[in-house]
Amino acid sequence: MKNLSRKVSVTQIAIFLYLTLQSGVKVDAQQVLDKVIAVAGSEAIYLSELQNETQLYVLQNQVDPKTPDLQKKILENMINDRLMLAKAIEDSVAVTDDEVQQQLDERIKEIVQQNGSEARVEELYSMPISRMKREFRESMKKQLLKTKLYRLKFGSINVGRREVEEFFAAYRDSLPEA
Protein backbone atom coordinates (compact mmCIF):
# COMPACT_ATOMS: atom_id res chain seq x y z
CA MET A 1 0.00 0.00 0.00
CA LYS A 2 2.96 2.29 0.70
CA ASN A 3 4.13 1.99 -2.93
CA LEU A 4 0.63 2.75 -4.20
CA SER A 5 0.39 5.96 -2.20
CA ARG A 6 3.89 6.94 -3.38
CA LYS A 7 2.87 6.22 -6.97
CA VAL A 8 -0.23 8.35 -6.65
CA SER A 9 1.67 11.23 -5.10
CA VAL A 10 4.39 11.12 -7.77
CA THR A 11 1.71 10.98 -10.46
CA GLN A 12 -0.11 13.91 -8.91
CA ILE A 13 3.11 15.91 -8.68
CA ALA A 14 3.99 15.11 -12.27
CA ILE A 15 0.56 16.14 -13.50
CA PHE A 16 0.76 19.33 -11.44
CA LEU A 17 4.13 20.15 -12.99
CA TYR A 18 2.81 19.45 -16.46
CA LEU A 19 -0.29 21.60 -15.99
CA THR A 20 1.81 24.39 -14.48
CA LEU A 21 4.10 24.37 -17.50
CA GLN A 22 1.08 24.48 -19.79
CA SER A 23 -0.45 27.45 -17.95
CA GLY A 24 1.18 30.03 -20.15
CA VAL A 25 4.52 30.66 -18.49
CA LYS A 26 6.62 32.43 -21.13
CA VAL A 27 10.16 31.17 -21.69
CA ASP A 28 12.57 32.32 -24.36
CA ALA A 29 12.88 29.24 -26.61
CA GLN A 30 16.42 30.24 -27.64
CA GLN A 31 17.66 29.93 -24.05
CA VAL A 32 15.95 26.68 -23.07
CA LEU A 33 16.81 23.53 -25.02
CA ASP A 34 14.59 21.22 -22.98
CA LYS A 35 12.89 21.21 -19.61
CA VAL A 36 11.92 18.71 -16.95
CA ILE A 37 8.14 18.35 -16.72
CA ALA A 38 7.97 15.46 -14.23
CA VAL A 39 10.09 13.19 -12.09
CA ALA A 40 9.20 9.52 -11.64
CA GLY A 41 11.28 7.67 -9.11
CA SER A 42 14.76 9.03 -9.76
CA GLU A 43 14.25 9.70 -13.48
CA ALA A 44 13.33 13.01 -15.04
CA ILE A 45 10.82 13.20 -17.87
CA TYR A 46 11.59 15.95 -20.36
CA LEU A 47 9.21 17.97 -22.50
CA SER A 48 10.96 16.67 -25.62
CA GLU A 49 10.27 13.07 -24.51
CA LEU A 50 6.58 13.86 -24.02
CA GLN A 51 6.44 15.49 -27.44
CA ASN A 52 8.17 12.48 -29.04
CA GLU A 53 5.87 10.01 -27.27
CA THR A 54 2.85 12.02 -28.35
CA GLN A 55 4.02 12.13 -31.95
CA LEU A 56 4.70 8.38 -31.92
CA TYR A 57 1.30 7.66 -30.36
CA VAL A 58 -0.46 9.81 -32.96
CA LEU A 59 1.40 8.04 -35.78
CA GLN A 60 0.82 4.52 -34.48
CA ASN A 61 -2.82 4.98 -33.48
CA GLN A 62 -3.89 7.42 -36.18
CA VAL A 63 -5.52 9.86 -33.77
CA ASP A 64 -5.88 13.60 -33.93
CA PRO A 65 -2.90 15.21 -32.14
CA LYS A 66 -5.29 17.89 -30.82
CA THR A 67 -7.38 15.32 -28.91
CA PRO A 68 -8.24 16.84 -25.51
CA ASP A 69 -6.01 15.64 -22.66
CA LEU A 70 -3.92 13.47 -25.02
CA GLN A 71 -0.59 14.75 -23.70
CA LYS A 72 -1.83 14.53 -20.10
CA LYS A 73 -2.75 10.85 -20.57
CA ILE A 74 0.55 10.10 -22.31
CA LEU A 75 2.45 11.81 -19.47
CA GLU A 76 0.56 9.74 -16.89
CA ASN A 77 1.50 6.59 -18.82
CA MET A 78 5.14 7.69 -19.01
CA ILE A 79 5.22 8.23 -15.23
CA ASN A 80 3.63 4.85 -14.54
CA ASP A 81 6.04 3.17 -16.96
CA ARG A 82 9.05 4.75 -15.24
CA LEU A 83 7.79 3.65 -11.83
CA MET A 84 7.23 0.09 -13.06
CA LEU A 85 10.68 0.03 -14.64
CA ALA A 86 12.26 1.20 -11.38
CA LYS A 87 10.41 -1.58 -9.54
CA ALA A 88 11.55 -4.18 -12.11
CA ILE A 89 15.16 -3.11 -11.63
CA GLU A 90 14.72 -3.09 -7.84
CA ASP A 91 13.32 -6.65 -8.01
CA SER A 92 16.22 -7.81 -10.25
CA VAL A 93 14.00 -8.70 -13.20
CA ALA A 94 16.15 -9.40 -16.27
CA VAL A 95 15.74 -9.98 -20.00
CA THR A 96 18.22 -11.43 -22.47
CA ASP A 97 19.56 -9.76 -25.60
CA ASP A 98 17.91 -12.52 -27.65
CA GLU A 99 14.50 -11.74 -26.12
CA VAL A 100 14.94 -8.07 -26.89
CA GLN A 101 16.04 -8.76 -30.49
CA GLN A 102 13.15 -11.16 -31.11
CA GLN A 103 10.54 -8.71 -29.81
CA LEU A 104 12.12 -5.85 -31.72
CA ASP A 105 12.09 -7.84 -34.97
CA GLU A 106 8.44 -8.80 -34.42
CA ARG A 107 7.41 -5.21 -33.69
CA ILE A 108 9.19 -3.85 -36.78
CA LYS A 109 7.54 -6.58 -38.85
CA GLU A 110 4.11 -5.54 -37.51
CA ILE A 111 4.77 -1.90 -38.30
CA VAL A 112 5.85 -2.79 -41.84
CA GLN A 113 2.70 -4.89 -42.34
CA GLN A 114 0.48 -2.07 -41.04
CA ASN A 115 2.05 0.45 -43.39
CA GLY A 116 2.50 -1.71 -46.47
CA SER A 117 6.26 -1.60 -47.02
CA GLU A 118 9.62 -0.94 -45.40
CA ALA A 119 10.02 2.13 -47.61
CA ARG A 120 6.75 3.61 -46.27
CA VAL A 121 7.83 2.93 -42.65
CA GLU A 122 11.21 4.55 -43.27
CA GLU A 123 9.42 7.55 -44.75
CA LEU A 124 7.02 7.83 -41.78
CA TYR A 125 9.76 7.53 -39.16
CA SER A 126 12.31 9.51 -41.20
CA MET A 127 15.00 6.86 -40.69
CA PRO A 128 16.08 3.49 -42.12
CA ILE A 129 14.84 0.28 -40.48
CA SER A 130 18.36 -0.53 -39.24
CA ARG A 131 18.49 2.77 -37.34
CA MET A 132 14.99 2.20 -35.97
CA LYS A 133 16.16 -1.11 -34.52
CA ARG A 134 19.17 0.56 -32.90
CA GLU A 135 17.16 3.46 -31.51
CA PHE A 136 14.21 1.40 -30.27
CA ARG A 137 16.33 -1.37 -28.72
CA GLU A 138 16.57 0.23 -25.26
CA SER A 139 12.89 1.08 -25.31
CA MET A 140 12.02 -2.53 -26.17
CA LYS A 141 14.25 -3.79 -23.36
CA LYS A 142 12.46 -1.55 -20.88
CA GLN A 143 9.08 -2.71 -22.17
CA LEU A 144 10.07 -6.35 -21.73
CA LEU A 145 11.29 -5.66 -18.18
CA LYS A 146 7.94 -4.08 -17.29
CA THR A 147 6.04 -6.95 -18.91
CA LYS A 148 8.05 -9.54 -16.97
CA LEU A 149 7.48 -7.67 -13.72
CA TYR A 150 3.75 -7.48 -14.41
CA ARG A 151 3.60 -11.22 -15.11
CA LEU A 152 5.59 -12.02 -11.96
CA LYS A 153 3.33 -9.88 -9.78
CA PHE A 154 -0.05 -10.45 -11.39
CA GLY A 155 0.28 -13.49 -13.67
CA SER A 156 -1.24 -15.94 -11.21
CA ILE A 157 -4.22 -13.83 -10.19
CA ASN A 158 -7.54 -15.32 -11.21
CA VAL A 159 -10.69 -13.30 -10.74
CA GLY A 160 -14.05 -14.94 -11.20
CA ARG A 161 -17.47 -13.50 -11.81
CA ARG A 162 -18.35 -13.77 -8.12
CA GLU A 163 -15.36 -11.63 -7.09
CA VAL A 164 -16.19 -9.00 -9.71
CA GLU A 165 -19.81 -8.82 -8.54
CA GLU A 166 -18.72 -8.55 -4.89
CA PHE A 167 -16.28 -5.77 -5.74
CA PHE A 168 -18.92 -3.91 -7.72
CA ALA A 169 -21.45 -4.22 -4.90
CA ALA A 170 -18.92 -3.02 -2.31
CA TYR A 171 -17.62 -0.05 -4.35
CA ARG A 172 -20.64 0.86 -6.47
CA ASP A 173 -20.89 4.35 -4.99
CA SER A 174 -17.29 5.25 -5.76
CA LEU A 175 -17.17 3.93 -9.34
CA PRO A 176 -17.69 6.40 -12.22
CA GLU A 177 -20.74 5.97 -14.40
CA ALA A 178 -20.06 4.80 -17.93
In short:
This protein has 178 residues and is mostly helical.
Commentary on this structure:
By secondary structure, this protein is mainly α. Helices cover 67% and strands 5% of the residues. It contains seven helices and two strands. It has helices at residues 2-21, 47-61, 70-90, 97-115, 118-125, 129-154, 161-171; strands at residues 36-40, 43-46. A two-stranded antiparallel sheet has the order 1-2. A hairpin with a 2-residue loop joins strand 1 (36-40) and strand 2 (43-46). Helix 1 packs antiparallel against helix 3, helix 3 packs across helix 6 (129-154) and helix 4 crosses helix 6. The protein is globular and about 55 Å long.
Protein topology:
Elements: H1 2-21, E1 36-40, E2 43-46, H2 47-61, H3 70-90, H4 97-115, H5 118-125, H6 129-154, H7 161-171
Antiparallel strand pairs: 1-2
Helical residue percent?
55-70%
The structure class reads mainly alpha
Radius of gyration: 19 Å
| Percent range for β-strand residues | 5-15%
**Bulk shape:** globular
Return the string of H and E elements: HEEHHHHHH
Strands ordered across the widest β-sheet: 1-2
**Beta-strand segment tally:** 2
Which key phrases capture this entry?
mainly alpha; two-stranded antiparallel sheet; 67% helix; 7 helices; 178 residues; single chain; disordered N terminus
